[in-house]
Amino acid sequence: MRFSQAEPEKDHNGRRRSQNAQNRLSGSNTPEKKNSRLSLPTTITMLSSSALGAGIFGLPAVLKENGMIVGIILLAVGGVFSAISQYYLIKLTRVANERKEKEGLPLLTTYSELLQYSVEIK
């Protein structure tokens, strides 16, 4: 005796869809969403990898368009500007947290809080 199996769904081209594709489309076999808040190390890793990845992929184009010497100079200038901006962000965070501590308010812990506080400073 032969067991009949349901006919697999077909896509718009008439091809049969795999079971994984059917599950993805129907939403079955998907894990339930947990708390979507990311931890600090995970957030830092994701932001760093995206920034580094974009920079690494852009380097060959910069060197190709500008030449090796000019490309290296531009890379060094970009690194200096990056270091300066990081220095000022750290300095602003320290100054803002010192002021918040004197006022008895909670310290700034995220970049968005720091930006919001720096706009509010008069």
| Biggest sheet overview | none
Give the structural class: mainly alpha
- Low-pLDDT stretches are none
**Helix share of residues?**
55-70%
Mean pLDDT: 75
Radius of gyration equals: 26 Å
Q: What does the overall shape look like?
A: flat
Our count of helices gives 4
Order of helices and strands: HHHH
Distance between the termini: 84 Å
Strand content: under 5%
The total beta strand count reads: 0
What do you see in this structure?
The protein is mostly helical. The protein has a domain at 40-120. 66% of the residues lie in helices and 0% in strands. The chain is built from 4 helices and no strands. The protein has helices spanning 19-26, 40-66, 68-103, 111-120. α2 runs antiparallel to α3 (68-103). It is flat. The protein starts with 18 loop residues before the first helix and ends with a helix.
